[in-house]
Every structure is written in structure tokens, then in C-alpha cells.
């Protein structure tokens, strides 16, 4: 049985490997906390906020993210693929998710704003209808993803192969449209 923690604020804490396992946090705020050494297992976050936190290289397994907001957090090389997908809803603002893995996740309830998504693995993920607002998608991989009606118009550096990714009614800027042609060995100037 998980311990339940409601409406608490945590600041400037560096968490150990298994310190947070089997806990449920609701309406909590984490400020300037370091989770990079964590090996999360059976952990729930509901309506929580994370500001200036570090999750880089943390192991995230069987974690439930239910309406969670991250602002100015770092997630380098984090694998989200083993997260619980029921009511999976995360919002990222000013975050670094470089080299993160979101393979085959349903991300339709997620938001990405002004974040670095360099080389993120979105393969087979469902990003349909979401907006990548002012994000850097350099080398992000969308192969076999569903990006229908997704809005990439304010983002940059994306390279998406429309033959391998569903992009029907997705929105791209004219400048960004080059990223749809690069797989065809076409030079656009």
C-alpha cells in the first residue's frame, strides 16, 4: 500500500535511489529538487508541479503522471516508455528532454512549450493534435508515430518522413517544411 502525501512543498532536496518508491503525491510542489539518482518504481504524481528540478538519467518505471506540470526541469536520457499510461498527462515548459525516450506512448494529453527535445524518441508515439510550441526538435525521431493534426509551426529543426509518419492535417511552417523533404535527398534553398 502506498503512502499518501497531500498538498506539501519540497525544496532543495536531493533524493536517493529508492527513497520515493511506493508513494503517492497529490497537489504537491517540488522546487529545485534533484531526482537524477532515483530508480522510481510504483510512484504516483497527481496534480503536482515541478520547478527547476533535475531528473536526468533517472530510472522511471511504473510511474503514474496524472496532470503534472514541469517548468525549467531537465530530463536528459530519461525513458518514459515504462510509465503507466492511464490518464498519462504531463506538461513541459522551458524543459530539456534531450535524448529522452517516449517510444509508443499516447502523448495526446501532453504539452511541450519552449522546450529542447533534441533526439527524443517519439517512434510509434501518438502525438496527434498536440502543439509543439517553440520547441527544438533537432534529430527527434517520429518514425511510425501518429502526428495527425499536430502543430509544429512554431518549432524548429524537425525532420519527419511523411512516408513513415502519419502527418495528415499536421501544421508546419513554410521554413520548417524543409524537414519534411530531407528524406528525399532534395535540396531546398
Q: Helix/strand-derived class?
A: mainly beta
Radius of gyration: 17 Å
Choose one word for the global shape.
elongated
CATH architectural group of the largest domain: 3 Solenoid
Task: Name the CATH class of the largest domain.
Answer: Mainly Beta
User: In the CATH scheme, what's the topology name of the largest domain?
Assistant: Pectate Lyase C-like
Instruction: Give the helix level as a range of percent.
Output: under 10%
Q: What's the story with the biggest beta sheet?
A: 7 strands, parallel
Strand elements, count: 11
- Low-confidence stretches are none
Descriptive report:
The chain has two domains: 75 residues, Pectate Lyase C-like (3 Solenoid), CATH 2.160.20; 88 residues, Pectate Lyase C-like, CATH 2.160.20.80. The protein is 2% helix and 24% strand. The chain has 189 residues and is mainly beta. The model has no long low-confidence stretch (mean pLDDT 94). The chain has a seven-stranded parallel sheet with strand order 2-4-6-8-9-10-11, with no helix packed on it. It is elongated and about 55 Å long.
Amino acid at each position: 500500500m502506498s503512502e499518501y502525501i497531500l498538498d506539501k512543498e519540497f525544496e532543495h532536496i536531493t533524493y536517493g535511489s529508492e527513497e520515493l518508491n511506493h508513494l503517492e503525491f497529490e497537489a504537491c510542489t517540488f522546487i529545485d529538487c534533484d531526482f537524477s539518482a532515483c530508480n522510481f518504481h510504483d510512484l504516483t504524481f497527481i496534480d503536482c508541479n515541478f520547478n527547476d528540478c533535475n531528473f536526468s538519467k533517472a530510472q522511471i518505471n511504473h510511474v503514474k503522471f496524472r496532470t503534472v506540470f514541469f517548468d525549467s526541469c531537465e530530463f536528459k536520457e530519461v525513458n518514459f516508455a515504462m510509465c503507466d499510461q492511464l490518464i498519462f498527462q504531463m506538461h513541459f515548459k522551458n524543459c530539456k528532454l534531450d535524448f529522452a525516450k517516449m517510444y509508443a506512448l499516447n502523448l495526446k494529453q501532453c504539452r511541450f512549450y519552449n522546450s529542447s527535445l533534441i533526439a527524443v524518441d517519439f517512434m510509434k508515439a501518438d502525438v496527434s493534435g498536440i502543439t509543439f510550441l517553440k520547441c527544438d526538435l533537432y534529430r527527434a525521431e517520429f518514425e511510425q508515430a501518429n502526428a495527425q493534426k499536430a502543430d509544429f509551426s512554431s518549432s524548429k529543426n524537425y525532420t519527419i518522413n511523411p512516408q513513415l509518419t502519419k502527418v495528415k492535417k499536421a501544421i508546419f511552417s513554410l521554413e520548417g517544411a524543409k524537414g519534411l523533404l530531407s528524406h528525399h535527398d532534395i535540396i531546398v534553398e
